[in-house]
Amino acid sequence: MTDLSPALPPHHPALSAADPELAALVGAEERLQAETLRLIPSENYVSGAVLEASGTVLQNKYSEGYPGRRYYEGQQNIDRVELLATARAKALFGADHANVQPYSGSPANLAVHLAFAEPGDTVMGMALPMGGHLTHGWGVSATGTWFRGVQYGVRPDTGLIDFDQVRDLALAERPRIIFCGGTALPRTIDFAAFAEIAREAGSVLVADIAHIAGLVAGGAHPSPVPHVDVVSTTTHKTLRGPRGAMLMAREEHAKAIDKAVFPGLQGGPHNQTTAAIAVALHEAAQPAFRDYAHAVVANAGALAAELLARGFDLVSGGTDNHLILMDLTSKDVPGKVAAKALDRAGIVVNYNTVPYDPRKPFDPSGIRIGTPSLTSRGLGTDHMAAVAEWIDRGVTAARTGDEDTLAKIRAEVADLMAAHPAPGLPV
Ligand code: DSN
């Protein structure tokens, strides 16, 4: 049950007056985000500027179409907002073309299918339980039912992408599209290796960099742009923007991408989100963002080292990026039990399958953690021993049912969080 007891912060006066019940929920969420150690690697804190942009009157406007080619009048300002966002995306990532209209990552990836494949065509991506994404042709997704998904994985001995398998599968299946990238990949993605295979197979290569977009923008992960046909990304993970997405493409694919997003799949773009994306891209182009991206990676490396020192098994033995995938089998605690106990301790993670997991996705062996949010709060490598220690104590307490320890950790976490206020939240 959500704790609604804390006093509301006074900074949503209209909302509080009009709908106190909803305002109380927002206030409770603000407090939760302020007091907890948020380790879900796909989450972050946006800046106050991004938050403000996403709550503007731009949301009152319909603008189906693209700048200069709309189906509604009154686009004097909206066109400029979207042009600013696309120009900033192209400049930041060095892309020929950018489309900032996809509502989020899944519609963006569906648009990619619409642009390059016909229903029933073969598409290839990493299997979801290996670290891929639903929308890369996984069976329960529309991308795996309307299209024929074939899937690659990681090597059981190393936890690294099995490029022999990728190549064999690509040459045997000749997929229309190959996706690289995913949601639980702790290691650097070798875009050049994928590009060579896609070239041999005659496939369109798509890099889904949703998780690492901020690292790419900040120079802390190699860019896919020189190697791939299309880049798909959400804007709200390491990139620290609003919930939204972008597609970037080589010039030759620009028309196909735009047509697939609108009118192929969507109606009017969410202009308030477009504005907030533009702000986030502006922030990501500043020198401080490079420091942020490198700090995210340094923190994850330090945290991984501390966890390994405490006897945890990490998929692939560690991390190169913002994400750590922990296999808790040797700790004798299922991932879901650990995740729920850590949540009670004020440490927010998600339970996750690990490659070759003998358990079910809704009750898997692992948890997935990452450092984007804690880095946004200014935590550094010298804090990672404490974070690892809390996780260690929390996982042990999960096994033994020691609620007192979980409550103690929650208080310790809240103290550290109070000393490191999060961007965008009321102090
Ligand atoms: N749900 C996202 C994540 O948590 O990684 C991927 O879509």
Describe, in plain words, how this protein is organized in 3D.
The chain has 427 residues and is of the alpha/beta class. It has 2 domains: 53-284, Type I PLP-dependent aspartate aminotransferase-like (Major domain) (Aspartate Aminotransferase, domain 2), CATH 3.40.640; 291-419, Aspartate Aminotransferase, domain 1 (Alpha-Beta Complex), CATH 3.90.1150. The protein has helices spanning 13-18, 20-35, 48-53, 76-93, 105-116, 142-145, 163-173, 191-201, 213-217, 254-265, 271-284, 287-309, 335-344, 372-376, 384-400, 403-419, and strands spanning 37-38, 65-66, 69-70, 97-99, 122-126, 148-152, 177-180, 204-208, 230-234, 245-249, 313-314, 323-327, 347-348, 350-352, 366-370. Helix 6 links the parallel strand 5 and strand 6 (148-152). Helix 7 (163-173) runs parallel beside helix 8 and helix 13 crosses helix 15 (384-400). The two termini are 24 Å apart. The model is unreliable at 1-9 (pLDDT under 50). The structure holds D-serine.
Task: Please name the defining characteristics of this protein.
disordered N terminus; 16 helices; alpha/beta; 427 residues; Aspartate Aminotransferase, domain 2; globular
Record the SSE blueprint.
Elements lengths: L12 H6 L1 H16 L1 E2 L9 H6 L11 E2 L2 E2 L5 H18 L3 E3 L5 H12 L5 E5 L15 H4 L2 E5 L10 H11 L3 E4 L10 H11 L2 E5 L4 H5 L12 E5 L10 E5 L4 H12 L5 H14 L2 H23 L3 E2 L8 E5 L7 H10 L2 E2 L1 E3 L13 E5 L1 H5 L7 H17 L2 H17 L8
Parallel strand pairs: 1-13, 5-6, 5-7, 7-8, 8-9
Antiparallel strand pairs: 2-3, 4-10, 9-10, 11-12, 12-15, 14-15
Bound molecules: D-serine (DSN).
The site of D-serine has 4 residues, from loops.
